[in-house]
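1st attempt posting a full record on here, be nice pls
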Amino acid sequence: MLSVIQKIEAKYKKSAVVDVRSGDTVKVHQKIKEGNKERIQIFQGLVIRVDRKNSLSSRMVVRRMASGTGVEKSFLLHSPLVDKIEVTKRSKVRRNYLTYMRDRTGKAARLTGVVFDKRTVNDLPEPSVEVVGEKTEDDSSTAAKTKAEPAVTSA
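the predicted structure (as tokens):
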């Protein structure tokens, strides 16, 4: 039986989220609102940490190098501002929190890649919307026409 808090959290969770792990290189498509305009900005980097994976407050920390300076950004996976997450590379790591990557530069900052199927990881099932009990006039008229027309056979 679900508690009241779990029922409320289930309302706000996204139906499908990409399986992101530490050591993945990801592209995070984030909605940015400037005045009355809205645009999508892509932040690409290495996932250093993933917290509370099955929770509404699940979060990941992504690190990238920008102009020789390390930039880290934290993203809530179920946030409406996070539009899409794409995993571009998956690496072999043995830790959940990769703090040691902050000190590495150049070749020492490379991780060993692992072969994985990008299509199965990044493709999410589309949320299906079913309308039950509503019939339009077009549906009923085409159904009546097909029943009324006799079957023509060629001899």
